[in-house]
Amino acid sequence: MAALVAARFNPVIRAFYQRLCAAGKAKKVALTACMRKLLIILNAMMKHRTSWRQVTDPALTGAGESQDDRVIVAPRPIVRAVVSSLCPT
User: Which of 67, 5, 79 is nearest to 42 (CA)?
Assistant: First the structure.
């Protein structure tokens, strides 16, 4: 369900999903790729103990920022719940 919502409302995942669909991938295959992308992002967040921040990707905002400034969008309470359940302090 998270990948389905992200494919509709998260600008980065939505662009990824639309690009895959435009390339001829089946919708379920594209959605599965979005699921994998979200899992990879969450694993990286756990590894580096970072939170999910607002998007600043120049391809999505039209600004002239560098590629290093890109981050992904996610609701913070969900990320905190996942992090707290996986890494108790």
Answer: 79
> What is residue 49's DSSP assignment?
T
Collapse the DSSP code of 69 into the 3-class scheme (helix H, G, I; strand E, B; otherwise coil) and give the result.
Answer: helix
**46-62 exposure pattern, b = at least 16 Cβ within 10 A, e = fewer:** eeeeeebeebebeeeee
Neighbour count for residue 78 (Cβ, 10 Å): 12
**Structural domain boundaries of the chain?**
2-86
- How far is residue 11's CA from residue 60's CA, in Å, rounded to a whole number? 7
What is the DSSP-derived secondary structure letter of residue 53? -
Question: Within 13 Å, how many C-alpha atoms sit on residue 2's CB side?
Answer: 15
Side chain identity at 32, as an amino acid letter? T
pLDDT in tens, 28-53: 999 999 999 999 988 998 998 888 77
